[in-house]
Amino acid sequence: MKKNNFEINSTFSPTTNLPDVRFLELIESLSKIAVQGYNRHREVIYWNKASTFLYGYTQTEALGKKLEDLIIPPSMKKDVIAAHKNWLEHNIPIPSSELTLQDIKGQPVPVFSSHVLLKTRGDEFEMFCLDIDISEQVSVRKALEKMVSYDPITNCLNRHSIELVINELIKRSIKDFSLLFIDIDRFKDVNDVFGYEAGDELLLKVSERLSTPLEKTDYIARFSADKFIVILSSEPSSNHERLTQLLIDSFNSPLKLHDQLIFTSISVGICHFPNDGNSVRTLLQCAETAMYDAKENGRNQFRVYNRAMSDSSHFQIEISQRLRESLIHEEFHLVYQPIYCAQSEKIVACEALLRWNSNANKNNTTPDTFIPIAEKVGLMIPIGNLILHMAFKELKKWRSSGIKDVRMLINISGKQLLQKEFFSQLSETLEMYELTPSDIGLELTEHALIEADDELLKNLSLLQVQGVDIAIDDFGTGYSSLSYLNKLPVNTLKIDKSFVDYAPYRNNDSAIFEAIVGVAHKLDLLVIAEGVETTQHVEYCKSKNVDMLQGYSYSKPLSSQVLESFLLPFKS
Q1: Burial of 139: CB neighbours in 10 Å, binned 0-12, 13-18, 19+
Q2: pLDDT at 5
Q3: Which of 254, 391, 459, 571 has its CA 20 to 30 A from that of 186?
Q4: What is the per-residue DSSP string for 460-501?
Q5: CATH 3.20.20.450 in the chain, residues?
Q6: What are the pLDDT digits (tens) for 70-87?
Q7: Domain 150-305 classified CATH 3.30.70.270?
């Protein structure tokens, strides 16, 4: 073996008989290699300066002492004595190898050690050990191993390592274990508000808090950006859900980041080996599916995996894939539901509603199902842009044919609003189709408006001044608070169908309905009642001074061709 440009031969025969002077001259020339000589009783007979530098013993301190009492750790003593004896008595050489010996202070010393057995003129055997300090190489190797195995921010195991751990636990199959898939709720908000350094610090604090109640036989890993894996194997599996709740509850107290107290929470999915799977991939998928179920049901909780979750997940994956394909091929169209003035019963606006072409939508999936999936997988932004183009193209046809007084209302998702380019793109698209802001209205959810920051509200206010009608859609299904209405740049309130359904028949529903209309009018907001489906609904809404009516009592959503006949009276 070649080390530091020296050729070291560890296979000298016991019959090798080198002149003492020549051998001593040779080993003295190896100034950077620690060389020690021992007699057949393993007592030191030679100790060079490099040995003193490496192990701390002077030559005077070392001479006469036994090998195993100087630099051999207690755990190795028996093996070293046996190996030396086998070489002397059975001609079995001690192979060259990496060893961790110890210095005068008992500290570990990593070396590459080679051994030579010499026969003296007096037929005695002497063993010489040549030790090369490999501390630096070992340090670098450990650093590399840590880089490969551990996450640099949290010092937890990384994804590769935890997958190896799970695989090993599966192979042993000694006991059941639970796999926890953990996501930090609203982690992106911390990055956005406080910066990535604060985000990294939060990851470290979360990992420390998660680690606190764990036993030595449990494992924790940072799996990806804001997600952790915990393996519980120390307690009976019946206790794992209780421990999971303790982990969730531990975040009831805030974390301190840069002298600020930050409250956060976690959502956790749990699966069990072997009940839920017997492969790494299956277990991770099951736990992740359960985690997303926890997030969709309000966050800050755990869900235990069951097969129904996978069925739902597979359905969503299938729908999202088909939506992506349909987006590429533009396999969507719009229908339009007229909105009528309650007093004149003339059409004053039409709401554009998305539909998925039947040739692509093989399961006849309704908008109530596929739109939330599109939101979840990030497709509503491109789909929303497509809706704008389709709606504006249709609206341009109306204007070109002389229909001037019917406004187009378009639903805008919260994610669309958060795009920095949304307002400039809206302006450019209006200009592309030769339309004006007063030609359109935007329907926004309560949640999107309540969560809007000052910049977003400023942009909406500017649209409102330019003539765009801003409406709160499905009012009553979100925060249902009247107190914030005077703070938001809105013109119109659309009362959700659920309020309209029973208002004519139930006193409590009627009282709420009247309160909404009354407050809206005092704030100079127009009111649209959605889901007006019966004569009783129409009469009731008119009696409560609702401004506009929308529903099947007047018209179902119509194709662009059928709608043209409805709009003929509005041609100028």
Answers
A1: exposed
A2: 29
A3: 459
A4: HHHHHHHT-EEEEEEETSS---STTGGGS--SEEEE-HHHHH
A5: 335-353+380-570
A6: 999 999 999 999 999 999
A7: yes
N- to C-terminal Cα separation, the chain: 98
Fold for the domain defined by 2-139: Beta-Lactamase (3.30.450)
Q: Where in the chain is the domain with CATH 3.30.450.20?
A: 2-139
The model carries a pTM of 0.57
Burial (CB count within 10 angstroms: exposed 0-12, middle 13-18, buried 19+), residue 181 = buried
Extended beta strands in 27-102, E state: 34-38, 44-47, 97-102
d(CA 26, CA 250): 66
Count of beta carbons in the 10 Å neighbourhood of residue 408: 21
Tokens describing residue 324 = 């992506």
Please write the tens of the pLDDT for every residue from 137-182: 888 887 777 778 899 999 999 999 999 999 999 998 778 899 999 9
Token pair, residue 382, equals: 């491109």
Cα(162)–Cα(229) distance, rounded to whole angstroms?
A: 8
CA-based Rg of the chain, rounded to a whole angstrom? 39
